[in-house]
């Protein structure tokens, strides 16, 4: 993992953790607020993921291609979420779940065999499991989704921070 990738993971992790804490602190948030928070998370996550693999030369070519494609798709889902913040809760659930699923799969696929891969695979598994849970139970209410989403954002944020710090410590300045 390059220093740029380490800093990007750290920044994305801090951002996700802040959004998770905001979602916990604001349990009475409206659908529009939730749409903006989760849309911003997907957009930032997608841009960071695409940038990491676009500008990191030490990853295998296949992993870089998968990382960039999934990053762009996650970013596009974030834009879709931001464009339709007044949409239904079920649409928001599906968009967020697909974003987390793509990001989690990208994290898993690109982490296999890399340094710090264990943390990154665990981070990807958390995102994939959260997305599967949301897709399996699409009848979640807004309060349940906020609680579930905030918990996921906090875990993913903490995992991103750990991965970022590990990446920064693994390479000399």
From TrEMBL:
Q: TM segments?
A: 7-26, 32-51, 63-85, 91-109, 121-140, 146-168
Q: Which domain of life is it from?
A: Bacteria
Q: Which InterPro entries match?
A: DUF308_memb (IPR005325)
Which keywords does this chain's UniProt record carry? Membrane, Transmembrane, Transmembrane helix
What is the recorded name of this protein?
Acid-resistance membrane protein
């Amino acid at each position: 993992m390059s220093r740029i990738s380490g800093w990007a993971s750290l920044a994305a992790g801090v951002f996700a953790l802040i959004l998770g804490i905001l979602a916990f602190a604001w349990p009475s948030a409206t659908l529009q607020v939730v749409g903006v928070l989760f849309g911003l998370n997907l957009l930032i996550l997608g841009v960071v993921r695409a940038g990491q693999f676009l500008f990191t030369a030490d990853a295998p070519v296949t992993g870089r291609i998968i990382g960039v494609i999934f990053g762009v798709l996650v970013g596009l889902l974030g834009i879709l979420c931001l464009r339709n913040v007044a949409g239904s809760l079920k649409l928001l659930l599906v968009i967020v779940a697909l974003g987390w699923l793509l990001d989690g799969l990208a994290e898993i696929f690109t982490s296999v065999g890399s340094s710090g891969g264990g943390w990154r695979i665990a981070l990807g598994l958390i995102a994939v499991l959260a997305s599967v849970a949301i897709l399996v139970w699409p009848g979640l209410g807004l309060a349940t989704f906020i609680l579930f989403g905030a918990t996921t954002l906090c875990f993913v944020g903490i995992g991103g921070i750990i991965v970022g710090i590990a990446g920064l410590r693994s390479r000399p300045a």
